[in-house]
């Protein structure tokens, strides 16, 4: 078939028409690509659905979710290939393939893919989440691990305890009435992260910042044809650039003011003042990004610009708000659907803590079944269902060719529900983790990777886990929970919505009653 007829056929399925000039440009580029590949012998691409000419599998965009890719994996296997325009995508849905990507060839797969929108909104990858792997990224990660999320940084952990106290009081004020558990826990994690980042316990400015976050989230996930046909970027056929400029300007205005206030505070330093994440990052501030590999001292080894600081703060807010809130809500929902497990974990709390006092941090290590509940929740509902990586060079996975620049999607959701790795994987069974031989996310068990693994694993895992465990422990220990309007546990909705995370499709609503004998 004539290539122009193929192009016409392919674009009939596309959501909008492109001018003839662009069709000619696309056709010429495709032909050039074919010529460059002549004579190059490689291993085969992974199996996958046959694509249309030029656009490949772009008519399957709606299937690029954790559930959609899991369904395709049942048909094509644990390593499958899709071509979205000029972009190669590989989905990983089993533990062995994940091990090859995250451990065996970690150096090749350590980059993160970034769309045009993500690159612009992160100041050209000035953050840690999307920066290419290399010396500067390693120093930024070290700053985050040591200075922002470390147990030595008491302020972050104190904010968790204080905000958990606040949610307990809020629930107490609604005893006997239906409460929106999802909204409560989202406000909990939002307040924790906002306070840890900016040092403010005030609600002032929070609504504005959450609005900015929501706009960023929408733009991160927005479809842009130039992401798949790169040479269309300069044309901006969808007019996305103006929206990106406006969104980043709003962030600049908000955080630049906060950075200025923190710089002024440092000039009038009070040793009794608590520091926040902005203070910690400002200790590395310089007018130009700079890396000094000769220094062993972290403060002398790297300099961060304002763009770096703003981008890292956005990473923290995105990574720590909805992910943890979703985990708490899913844990509560799964327990509401499993009354026997709910009774068991509450009995453990009564035995270990007693009904005369609240849960304390020292109690957490003794609450074995509670930890099993958290692990089972993370297995079935990982904080980020699709872990995104990008190849820095041509690679081979399970005998299949993965070209340089490919987007690799590790389906942590599907791997956690793989029937070859887990017994009765679709059932919520916390007791499975009482078996010491069951995979644990803290080791090299690639059957269970809710926080990723290798170089790009989640740097805030410990703080996130602490928040999840402490919040769930308090909600279960302080209150007895029932479903509203005579709803049966089996009637509770378990569908989710795909995004950065996979939260419940509908918020969990439940009726609390006081359980403890002591004042809350």
TrEMBL record:
What Pfam family is a match, any one? p450
Cofactor requirements of the protein: heme
Q: Which residues bind heme?
A: 458
Q: Which GO terms describe its molecular function?
A: heme binding; iron ion binding; monooxygenase activity; oxidoreductase activity, acting on paired donors, with incorporation or reduction of molecular oxygen
Give the record's family classification. Belongs to the cytochrome P450 family.
Q: Which UniProt keywords apply?
A: Heme, Iron, Membrane, Metal-binding, Monooxygenase, Oxidoreductase, Transmembrane, Transmembrane helix
Membrane-protein topology: Single-pass membrane protein
Q: Which PROSITE patterns match?
A: CYTOCHROME_P450
Q: What does the UniProt entry say about where the protein is found?
A: Membrane
Sequence intervals crossing the membrane: 16-36
An example Gene Ontology CC term for this record: membrane
Q: What is this protein called?
A: Ferulate 5-hydroxylase
User: Where primarily located?
Assistant: membrane
